[in-house]
Structure formats: structure tokens, C-alpha cells
């Protein structure tokens, strides 16, 4: 492991010792953060997987019904029936904080959940269309839960990756580097001390011999 | 955070999009990748937080899909279109697991 290029002085030694302490504390904190993020992530991603599978299946059913409805009605009638939607799907958004990762919280506005009101009279449209719209409407809350979960999971995954990289950088690069540097400086200082003692002893010897 | 109600966007082929319009979402039907990218940009700049994109369209615009990855206020969610699902949504999910945990052990035993 390469050492830092610093002067082997007592001042540098204290400085690096202090940095080592900080690095170790940061490493511990980040490691805890990573573990907690992963723990939460696993719970969320499980839910996400289940929900996505369900939504995908349901959505297919709903869209198939819609296709059926289109098949039994002529295009223009359908277009005009659906020209203006009777409801409006609105959501409100807020930001939640999971271990300082900002994740969205999406909630459907109450009015979008009201029972399906068909935006058309029953005379010209088929029953299949009513069905199809109802299925779609029932799917709405799940769609948003899915959106929220999926976004949360992808944000968490990014944060976990970043945190892990930091933990590893500290653990395998920074901390060993500091430790090695401390060792080198200590050795250098000890060596200097020994050589000055020897020098003093020599000088004393010479003086003693001269007398 | 402002609590004002926001619309939802849907981008896809005209078949799939029609179904979502009945739910009062803002829909844009597109044919080409270029149109789709423009549509995403337009919806995002209108402040729409959730945009559902049908899978076949989403596949054509990977750059746009990943552009908003780190923005908590914009979620681009792939959904199966009128045809069978191509598994893009699941792919993204698995990619996330792999990124976070390092291995995809978790989901395999769930799929049995």
C-alpha cells in the first residue's frame, strides 16, 4: 500500500492520526447506513416485484377488454363517447426522507377514486366498454403505489451503490493508507531519535578520550 | 412541498392510450422514438410527476428513461401496452436489485 507523501514530522503524525480517527468513524457510520438501506430496500423491492406482476397481469386484462369494446363498437362512436373524460385522475406529491434519500410519496386525490361515472349515455355504447372502464378504474390505486415503489427502489438502489463505494474506498484505500503512513512516520522519527542518541554518545566518548 | 393536485401522464400507442384517457389522465399518443422523447420532455416540463410509458415505446428511448433517474419528482414507469408484456418493467426491477445487493438471488426464488 502506497503511503501518503508527507514529511515525517511530529506535526504530520498528529494530523494523520486525527484523520485516521475521522475516517474510521465515517467508515462505521457509512457502513451502518449501507446496511440499513439494504434492509429497507429488500423489503420494498419484494413488494415492488409482487405488485408489478399483479399490475401487469391486471392491466393486460383491462386493455384486452378495451380492445373488445373497440371491436364491437365503431370507431367514431367510441371516440366521441370518450372524447371528454368525466373524471380526472389527480395525485398529490410529497417528499419522504429515507435515511436522507429523498423519495416521492404519491397519493391519489379522493375525487379520482369515486365510482366510475361513464362520460357517455348508455344508448350508443356497448356494455363491454363500461366493463373495461370499470376495470381500469379499479386498477388506478395500484398503479400509483407501483409508481411510488418503483421510483423509491431505483433511488435507493442508486444510493446504496454510492454508499457502498464510499465504504469500500474508506475501508480498502483511505484507512490502510493512513495506517501505513503513521507506521512509516513513527519509524522515521524513532530512527532519528536513535541516531541522535548515538551521536551524543559518540561525542561524549570523543570528549572523554581527549581529556 | 406544494400540495396542489397534479395530473398524470401516459405515453404510448394510440390503442393503449385511449383506455387511460377515460381515467382522466393526460395522454399523448406517439409513434416514433423522437415523438416519445419530446412527449416525455413536454409532460415533465408541465410538472407532471408520474408518467406511464408503454413498454415498446419505453424501449426505444433508453436515454430519456434514465435521464430522470435521480430526480425524485419525476417517475417514468413502464407499463405493458396492448400487446403482451415484454418484461421491461421486470428487467428494470432486477437491474435495481443487482445494483443494490450485488446479486439477484432475491427474486429468483420468488418466481417459482
Please, could you describe this protein's structure?
- The complex is a heterodimer of chains A (211) and B (112).
- Chain A contains three helices and two strands; from the N terminus they run H-H-E-E-H.
- With 211 residues, chain A is mainly alpha-helical.
- Chain A has a single domain (10-205), classed as Helix Hairpins (Orthogonal Bundle).
- Chain A has a two-stranded antiparallel sheet.
- The mean pLDDT of chain A is 84.
- The mean pLDDT of chain B is 79.
- In chain B, 42% of the residues are buried.
- Chain B is globular and about 40 Å long.
- In chain B, strands 2-1-3-4 form a four-stranded parallel β-sheet, sandwiched between helices.
- In chain B, strand 1, helix 1 and strand 2 form a beta-alpha-beta unit.
- Chain B has a domain at 8-83: 3-Layer(aba) Sandwich (Rossmann fold), CATH 3.40.50.10580.
- Classes of the chains: A mainly alpha (211), B alpha/beta (112).
- Chains A and B meet through helix 1, strand 1, strand 2 and helix 3 of A and helix 1, strand 4 and helix 5 of B.
Concise account of the structure shown:
Chain A is mainly alpha-helical and 211 residues long. Helices cover 73% and strands 8% of the residues of chain A.
Average pLDDT reading of chain A = 84
Could you list the spans of chain B in which at least 5 consecutive residues all have pLDDT below 50?
none
CATH architecture of chain A: Orthogonal Bundle
Low-pLDDT sequence parts of chain A: none
Q: Name the helix and strand elements of chain A from N-terminus to C-terminus, one letter apiece.
A: HHEEH
Strand order of the largest sheet of chain A: 1-2
Strand content of chain A: 5-15%
| Top CATH class of chain A | Mainly Alpha
Amino acid at each position: 500500500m502506497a503511503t501518503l507523501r508527507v514529511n515525517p514530522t511530529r506535526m504530520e503524525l498528529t494530523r494523520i492520526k486525527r484523520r485516521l480517527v475521522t475516517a474510521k468513524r465515517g467508515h462505521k457510520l457509512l457502513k451502518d447506513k449501507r446496511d440499513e438501506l439494504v434492509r429497507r430496500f429488500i423489503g420494498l423491492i419484494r413488494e415492488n416485484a409482487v405488485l408489478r406482476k399483479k399490475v401487469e397481469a391486471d392491466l393486460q386484462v383491462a386493455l384486452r377488454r378495451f380492445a373488445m369494446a373497440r371491436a364491437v363498437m365503431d370507431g367514431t362512436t367510441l371516440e366521441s363517447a370518450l372524447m371528454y373524460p368525466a373524471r380526472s385522475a389527480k395525485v398529490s406529491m410529497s417528499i419522504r426522507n429515507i435515511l436522507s434519500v429523498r423519495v416521492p410519496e404519491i397519493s391519489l386525490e379522493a375525487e379520482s377514486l369515486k365510482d366510475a361515472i361513464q362520460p357517455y349515455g348508455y344508448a350508443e355504447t356497448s356494455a363491454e366498454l363500461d366493463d373495461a372502464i370499470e376495470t381500469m378504474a379499479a386498477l388506478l390505486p395500484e398503479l400509483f403505489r407501483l409508481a411510488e415503489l418503483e421510483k423509491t427502489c431505483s433511488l435507493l438502489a442508486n444510493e446504496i451503490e454510492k454508499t457502498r463505494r464510499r465504504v469500500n474506498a474508506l475501508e480498502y484505500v483511505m484507512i490502510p493508507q493512513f495506517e501505513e503512513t503513521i507506521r512509516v512516520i513513527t519509524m522515521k522519527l524513532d530512527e532519528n531519535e536513535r541516531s541522535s542518541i548515538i551521536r551524543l554518545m559518540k561525542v561524549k566518548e570523543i570528549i572523554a578520550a581527549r581529556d | 412541498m406544494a400540495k396542489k393536485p397534479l395530473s398524470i401522464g401516459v405515453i404510448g400507442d394510440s390503442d393503449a392510450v385511449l383506455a387511460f384517457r377515460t381515467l382522466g389522465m393526460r395522454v399523448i399518443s406517439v409513434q416514433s422514438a423522437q415523438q416519445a422523447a419530446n412527449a416525455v420532455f413536454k409532460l415533465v416540463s408541465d410538472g407532471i410527476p408520474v408518467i406511464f410509458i408503454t413498454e415498446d415505446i419505453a424501449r426505444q428511448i433508453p436515454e430519456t428513461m434514465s435521464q430522470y433517474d435521480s430526480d425524485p419528482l419525476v417517475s417514468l414507469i413502464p407499463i405493458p401496452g396492448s400487446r403482451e408484456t415484454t418484461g421491461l418493467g421486470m428487467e428494470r426491477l432486477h437491474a435495481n436489485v443487482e445494483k443494490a445487493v450485488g446479486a439477484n438471488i432475491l427474486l429468483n426464488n420468488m418466481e417459482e
